Amino acid sequence: MPIGTELDASLADVLSMLKRAFPNGVSPTDYRPLLAALYEHLSDRNLANVISQLTHKDPDLVLNEIYEAVTSKKPKAQEIAALTRLLNHHGASETLADT
């Protein structure tokens, strides 16, 4: 999915929630924990497409980074937990329940 392609409604809601959680963009230290925190909630491709829209990165590159974040370069559990709390503060539990 090229950048600029519209997401379906539920993924657009996820993107909106992420923009609320990261109004200044995702920092490099939060990036991998974010991927790992969202991994269980979205399909690999959907997660790559949403993060691609958020970061303006190529979706295929993001997909590779997702795989790294859940395998060889997995963030610490406390980093994932901190990101999950941040996302939940911005409505992730409700938003992700609809995906």
Measured as a percent range, the helix fraction is 55-70%
Main beta sheet strand tally, sense and closure: none
Please report the distance between the alpha carbons of the first and last residues. 18 Å
Ranges where pLDDT stays below 50 over 5 or more residues in a row are none
Structural class: mainly alpha
Protein name: DUF3349 domain-containing protein
InterPro entries: DUF3349 (IPR021784), DUF3349_helical (IPR044918)
Name a few traits of the molecule.
99 residues, 69% helix, DUF3349, DUF3349_helical, DUF3349 domain-containing protein
Can you describe what's shown?
The chain has helices spanning 9-21, 28-39, 44-55, 59-70, 77-89, 92-97. By secondary structure, the protein is an all-alpha fold. It has one domain. α1 packs across α3 (44-55), α2 crosses α4 (59-70) and α3 (44-55) crosses α4. The longest helix is centred in the first third of the chain and has 13 residues, at 9-21. The radius of gyration is 12 Å and the shape is globular. The mean pLDDT is 92.
Write the layout of secondary structure elements.
Layout: H1 9-21, H2 28-39, H3 44-55, H4 59-70, H5 77-89, H6 92-97
InterPro entries: DUF3349, DUF3349_helical
Protein name: DUF3349 domain-containing protein
Pfam families: DUF3349
